[in-house]
Amino acid sequence: MRGSLSGAWGIFYNGPDSLACREVASVDGSGMPSNPPTLTPQSPASTAPGAGPSGAMIARQAIVNGQHSVIGYELFNRSRAGVAHTAATDVFLVFTALSHAGTEELVGKKLIFVNCTHESLAGGHLELVDPDKVVLEIPPLGHSAAAEVSTRLPILQALRERGFHLAFNHTVLESAYAPWLPLADYIKLDLSLLAPDQLAVLIKYAGRHTKAELIAEKVESAQQYDMASSMGVQLFQGFWFSRPAVVEARLLTPSQSSILQLINLVRQQASTDEIEEVLKKDAGLAFNLMRLINSSGFGLAREITSFRQAVMLMGLKKLFRWAALLLTASRIGGIPASVGHTAVVRGRLMELLALETLSQDDADQAFVVGIFSMLDVMLSMPIESAIGLLHVPEPVADALLRREGVLGELLRLAEACESSDDALFDQAATTLHLTSQQINWAHLQALAWADQLTD
């Protein structure tokens, strides 16, 4: 009865970067895909067997002011050595930094500087990001493409109007880029490329024609710092202050089949109930959605405690963007399907039992406790650290960490059902005022419900 969580959904797949970039780009004015490709079944062997942990390596380098206080960090993707900087790697970096890794762990309350390609700027993934603390580093177009300056201008203006900060390198001070200059919040001056006399001319010109703050980058000595500071530069970045420090973020990757099923439902404008069903059946999807929507990067003022709330708040447009990004960031491989299956069964069992005596809101939280109760196994870290990655309500945390409260008793009961521990089963059932008939019925229903994914 215990089927694999991966199911039979799949797609003809040309690597982890290809599909999501096409999906993100091919949207109409409503944000939903226009004439999207059909996602068709293929052999389960070509999809990930289930949610699984992997490590995302992100390097950060401090940007400091004249008092050597950190004002922000530039982030670099170090997960794919030897892979060129592309729109897909931009997607992976932003997605990881602002949802998986958590902005608090990487940069605290500081600004995030992220290198972008023009292709990624035109994609829709930035719609998922709270722009308040994000600085997008805009690359020059090169002399051969300078004619595109005006063409790219509306995209940059729209990003600025949304609240993103924009940073450019010193080429934005050239006449060809005059339309971009008023949009600059920061201008980076590369000391490895600019001679002192060139630097002085650029700083003087910037002082007369822009209000942007200047950042001297690749500062590698006290002499370079003193020179730039004496010319009026107030922000600095380079090895003399700090070398990039690598931070590993533990990721929980859903099965690609679940992501593709979610994308199909969103494309069909399915109901909230149908979408919630898919989320409930994959612990990786559930973890990533709750992590994103409760992160400071998403910008919500209140805590979200159920998948239904999350789906309704995101809406189909953002949910589609998120699913496409998740597919880009996903990895082949994972934990045994039985682990994810157990988590899903626990969640459904606890939800059904909670509905016997508690409110719908409590039942929603019971499901969250059950499906997240094996995060320590899924992420290969202590449960305390795993729960620390999420903003969960206190009753949920108490249940997961200490088996306290009614949710904790429900979790004990779910564990007893798995282990055939009669003493623990009887104790928990008595505490919860549940009969063995109620529990056995709910357990069978939960097992059948979880197995529906592979029907």
Automatic annotation (TrEMBL):
Biased composition (Low complexity): 43-52
Region annotation (Disordered) ranges: 26-52
SUPFAM superfamilies, per the entry: EAL domain-like (SSF141868), HD-domain/PDEase-like (SSF109604)
HDOD domain span: 252-438
Pfam family, one: HDOD
Gene3D superfamilies: EAL domain, Hypothetical protein af1432
Name recorded for this polypeptide: EAL and modified HD-GYP domain-containing signal transduction protein
Species of the source: Paracidovorax konjaci
